[in-house]
Specification:
By secondary structure, the protein is mainly beta. The chain is built from one helix and nine strands, in the order αβββββββββ. The protein has a domain of 104 residues. The chain is 11% helix and 32% strand. A hairpin with a 6-residue loop joins strand 5 and strand 6. The protein starts with a helix and ends with a strand. The chain binds zinc ion (2 copies). The site of one zinc ion (ZN) has 8 residues, from loops.
Length: 154
């Protein structure tokens, strides 16, 4: 690769990512990363690739199911996607949430959905900024691992 291309290539990649309005992202999250992204000696070391948002053909809600002890996703086909492009087995419409809960300590309202595996309740996590506590040890050292790549989802 010539030097000019080496400069242009990362620029193009960044532009392509920002042009794709539907793109969700997958991030490697780890227990033991401080809020600013630097490593800390606290935390249990649990790590997981978590995806937020949907792609061109589908939309997605992300959460953590306490009963299943893992991150779970509810996916459905995006509006206006023709039958022929529907992801195999994907539902047609946004599933109805189970309900909402109000957190009296923060004033926040959380939407509760049914886990696709156990049908128990889980709270929607909108993005990595709203995922600050480790689902395993409940300590506030859960963040994006700066040493791992991010993925765009289409
Ligand atoms: Zn932890
Ligand atoms: Zn579950």
């Amino acid at each position: 690769m010539n030097p000019a291309m080496r400069t242009i290539f990362p620029l193009l990649l960044t532009m392509m990512l920002s042009v794709s309005a539907f793109a969700g992202e997958g991030v490697s999250m780890k227990c033991g990363v401080a809020a600013a992204g630097e490593k800390t000696d606290k935390g249990c070391g649990y790590e997981e690739m978590v995806t937020f948002g949907g792609g061109m053909r589908f939309e997605q809600i992300t959460g953590y199911c306490r009963a299943c002890k893992k991150f779970v996703h509810v996916r459905w086909t995006r509006d206006g996607i023709p039958e022929s492009l529907r992801p195999p087995g994907g539902p047609k419409e946004k599933p109805k949430p189970l309900g909402e809960v109000w957190d009296a300590s923060t004033g926040a309202t959380h939407v509760v959905h049914a886990c696709p595996e156990c049908e128990g309740p889980f709270v929607e996590i909108k993005g990595s900024k709203d995922l600050t506590h480790c689902p395993k040890c409940n300590e506030p050292h859960f963040g994006i691992d700066p040493t791992k790549p991010r993925m765009a989802i289409d």
